[in-house]
Write a structure and sequence with these properties.
Blueprint: H1 6-41, H2 43-52, E1 55-60, E2 67-68, E3 74-86, H3 88-92, H4 99-109, H5 113-120, E4 140-143, H6 148-156, E5 164-174, H7 183-186, E6 189-191, H8 194-199, E7 212-214, H9 217-221, H10 223-227, E8 231-237, E9 243-246, E10 257-260, H11 264-281, E11 285-286, E12 291-292, E13 297-304, E14 310-316, H12 330-337, H13 348-351, H14 362-370, E15 379-381, E16 384-387, E17 390-393, E18 401-403, H15 405-411, H16 414-427, H17 440-447, H18 469-486, H19 493-504, H20 510-516, H21 527-539, E19 542-544, E20 549-553, E21 560-562, E22 567-570, H22 575-590, E23 609-615, E24 623-629, E25 633-640, H23 645-661, E26 691-694, E27 699-702
Parallel strand pairs: 2-10
Antiparallel strand pairs: 1-8, 2-3, 3-4, 3-5, 6-7, 8-9, 10-20, 11-12, 13-14, 13-25, 15-18, 16-17, 19-22, 20-21, 23-24, 24-25, 26-27
Length: 712
Amino acid sequence: MSNIPETGRTTRITIRLVAIQILVFSLLLTLGGRLWYLQIRNGDEYADEAASNHVQQVIQPATRGSILDARGIPLADNETRLVVSASRTDLMKMKDDGEAVLTRLAEVLDMTPKEVMDKVRLCDSETPQPCWNGSPYQPIPITDEATTQQALQIRERAEDFPGVSAEPTPVRRYAAPGESNAAQVLGYLSPVTDDEIKKAEDSESPLLRSDQIGRSGLERAYDAQLRGKAGVTRYEVDNLGRVIGKAESDRAEPGSNIVTSIDARVQAVAEKELALAMKDARKVHDRNTGMNYKADAGAVVVMESRTGRVVAMASNPTYDPNAWVGGISGKDYKRLTGKDSNFPLLNRAIQGQAAPGSIFKVIPTTAAVNAGYSFEGPYPCPSSYSIGGQVFKNFESAGHGSISLGKALEVSCDTVYYALSHKEWQKDGGIDPKKKPDDWFYKTAHQFGLGKETGIDLPNEVAGRVPDRQWKKDYWKANQKVWCKDGKKDGDYAQRIAYENCLEGMKMRAGDSVNYSIGQGDTLVTPIQMATIYAAISNGGTLYDPSVGKAIVSADGKKVQEIKPKAHGKLPMDATTRRKINDALAGVATRGTAAWRFVGWPQDKIPMHAKTGTAEVYGKQTTSWFATYTKDYTIVMTISQGGTGSGASGPAVRNIYNALYGVDTKGKINRKKGLLPVPQPKLPRIEADGTIEAKPFGKTYKAVGLGGGKPQ
């Protein structure tokens, strides 16, 4: 028997019941509050999420637009291939990270397991190619060259290849019509990255994980227009994933076509002639080094003089842009980017910088006239010019008596320009300049457009360099410590130069000015800059933005946005000076340093103008330059370590002109055999069904996605 009084036991039971009631009430209150929060306050949000859980999206990538030449011939288009892809997401769910599946896949595709596994690994700063630099959540292409038999094996044995697909897919094709490669002009594609998707979220052209985007050339410059808009099909599904209906969908919009000013036939000739010129230069003995010329790189630009439109642009060494299609192999990646590759991805027409040599002399000629010197002179042209104890020689130490500026251009007399620039340097105060020096020779170079980009519609153009006083100061500040550390008063050539630069590298010395006056020293230009300048001399003085794109045409051909030529300035010369320079450059082609390359040219019918250049480069062989123009076309060629301008580049430039105008070996003109009429034809017509009338080939070509550019 318990000794606890009945009254106390009742009190305890009452307290427990009250506590239980409070606890139950609290739980009910908490549950009710949570239900209110979920159903009332955030009800709409969760309802939307629940609804979206029952909608699945299927992405249909947009068909990328074609890049066409001036007559509608596809330079880059699409073709259908059997693409085998692997889902990294599915593979990572497997115990062995999909190793067994990829090993079986390698056997079917006649690849090694390592080759297949390397394809699906993700790129980072330490992972070598091949690797996947796109989103890890999209299917990763293993090969775009699968055979029908291989694709059938994968699809029929689906249980052996979970996460693997084999589907007909449009892939990029760089057609190289008539063997015109145009790799650096066209560029290439690679998968979009997560960072790029994030950056483009709020833009007018958002990116999807399945997108391929342009990485260089026209593919990059016009990527937004070429890419189009992917389609999205939305399906309503039940909890078991079964489709119960089709929701609202967005149709894919194919990308627009880019019509260019490139003519595939001229492009093929330019590429061939540049390659042959470099090959021939390597057979020539360099008297200065005792070895044959290396001719390790080169570029050529063919431009419409009156519009600035680029008809052909070649860079050597080159590459096949198809190597990037479907993911690049480790071997190809090393060949294109390794230290021994000589950088074939570089477009040397807009990115290759070098001292211009004597093709620069049209600029100091103009500067001298603007500074008040007479064009007619006369000016002495001795074999050498001395400043203090330093002697500056004419090319091959030739003297020509007293001559005009026009004759100085014609015979390429260095000493005339040495003397003029030295006088201007002295007038400006010499080593300690006056407060506001005139700097005619440097100011005029900037007015010609040097030291800045031309504005061509290709990415990554470089600006070159005009080594004026401000550049000297900036360069000295950046290098003073190194110069002072390495310089020696009585050391070798490089050490003595470093010693002098340490002490007064910020100052414009007399030697700097005279070297600059003939396109030597620290001056750097690109072929496209010089082509723009010589085209302006030809067309009356207008400096055009060089352009490759000619029009943006919708896939159905209904919308055409023409890309009209734009000018960014005028040459800083009056009509009289331009006419005299024009006459002098005609003399270069008929009597001067380029005359031996234009023997038999029909000068009376197609006046030719030219300027040769041979630029010296410390530690290397000379750079060959050849700048030319007619009233219709301007051609500039350069070959690094190629020798003289007329010697290395001259024959190739002449052959390109022969092809353009249909000039035979006897100097007779056959316009029917010439590659281009003047001016270029109008835009090719793209019909509603995507067909393109490509003339003068006489065949109808299909636009992008509607036949892959193959003749019908």
